[in-house]
């Protein structure tokens, strides 16, 4: 039996290198990543070092997904509102500084503090940290399939989801999948706006 290249499965540490490459390829024109690492050569070179520390956290505590054809990947974090106060970003800071350098890591932490200030804390949920599809096959349904895979599970579990859409075009994709705008956009200093969106589990 052959597996469809679009079939989605949970990623493991064995997929880490490929998964990081998928996200690095996918995000080169992503407005927030362009804001964090404005120089295109640095962005291309350093992106794997940007995504890797997040992937390590997600593989340990959340869910990473990859398509069988290795064209798309997503990272989801469990946000438990009872545990949120205990989070410590010290280790992430250290890994990001060694991954992308202190200057760019500081730019990420500006974004991160703006994200944290707006992050919903009224209900535990899955947080879509990153989803990416390599440019060659974007706009062919791979990303929608990747996200639906997780959202079906969340509906079954009665669990909500949250994302900051990095463009209005992305926001339209999330809206088609059941997300709604939540509060005002987050405007990075001299940079792009991001659109917080919340998705309650589908009922029935
Ligand atoms: C966003 C993304 C994951 C969607 O995956 P996909 O397989 O291309 O999307 P699908 O074919 O399932 O759905 C198409 C919809 O996705 C969105 N989309 C597709 N390509 C996109 C791109 N390059 N940038 C932003 N959104 C895109 C649009 O809403 C599009 O619908 P439209 O053509 O009517 O505007 C993918 O395009 C991508 O990796 N983009 C760059 C990285 C990124 O923006 N990640 C999300 C950060 S919040």
Describe this protein's structure.
The protein is an alpha+beta fold. The chain has a single domain, classed as Aminopeptidase (3-Layer(aba) Sandwich), CATH 3.40.630. Helix content is 45%, strand content 21%. Strands 1, 2, 3, 4, 5, 6, 7 and 8 form an eight-stranded mixed β-sheet that branches. α3 packs antiparallel against α4 and α4 runs antiparallel to α5. The longest helix has 22 residues. It is globular and about 45 Å long. The chain starts with 7 loop residues before the first strand and ends in a 5-residue tail after the last strand. The structure holds coenzyme A. Coenzyme A binds next to β4, α6 and α7.
Cα radius of gyration in angstroms: 16 Å
Percent helix, as a range, is: 40-55%
Highest CATH level, the class: Alpha Beta
Can you list the ligands bound to this structure? coenzyme A
Counted by DSSP, the helix tally is: 7
Q: What is the CA-CA span between the terminal residues?
A: 33 Å
- The CATH topology label is Aminopeptidase
Query: Residue ranges: pLDDT <50 for 5 or more in a row?
Result: none
CATH superfamily: Gcn5-related N-acetyltransferase (GNAT)
The secondary structure category is alpha+beta
CATH architecture annotation name: 3-Layer(aba) Sandwich
How many domains in all?
1
Question: Topology of this structure?
Answer:
Layout: E1 8-10, H1 16-26, H2 31-36, H3 40-61, E2 63-67, E3 72-79, H4 90-100, H5 102-118, E4 125-133, H6 142-157, E5 160-165, H7 168-176, E6 180-181, E7 186-187, E8 193-199
Parallel strand pairs: 4-5
Antiparallel strand pairs: 1-2, 2-3, 3-4, 5-8, 6-8, 7-8
Helix pairs in contact: 1-3, 3-4, 4-5
The structure holds coenzyme A (COA).
Coenzyme A is lined by residues 26-27, 30, 131-133, 138-144, 165-167, 169-170, 172-173.
């Amino acid at each position: 039996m052959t597996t469809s290249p679009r079939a989605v499965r949970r990623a493991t540490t064995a997929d880490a290198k490929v998964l990081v490459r998928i996200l690095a390829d996918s995000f080169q024109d992503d407005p927030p990543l362009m804001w964090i690492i404005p120089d295109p050569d640095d962005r291309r070179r350093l992106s794997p070092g940007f995504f890797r520390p997040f992937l390590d956290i997600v593989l340990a505590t959340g869910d990473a997904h990859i398509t069988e054809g290795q064209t798309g990947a997503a990272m989801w974090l469990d946000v438990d509102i009872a545990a949120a106060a205990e989070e410590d970003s010290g280790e992430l800071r250290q890994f990001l500084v060694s991954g992308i350098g202190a200057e760019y890591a500081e730019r990420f932490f500006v974004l991160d503090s703006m994200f944290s200030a707006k992050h919903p804390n009224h209900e535990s949920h899955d947080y879509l940290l990153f989803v990416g599809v390599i440019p060659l096959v974007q706009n062919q349904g791979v990303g929608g399939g990747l996200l639906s895979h997780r959202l079906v599970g969340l509906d079954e579990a009665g669990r909500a989801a949250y994302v900051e859409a990095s463009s209005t075009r992305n926001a339209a994709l999330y809206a088609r999948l059941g997300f709604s705008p939540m509060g005002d956009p987050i405007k990075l200093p001299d940079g792009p706006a991001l659109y917080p969106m919340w998705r309650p589990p589908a009922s029935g």
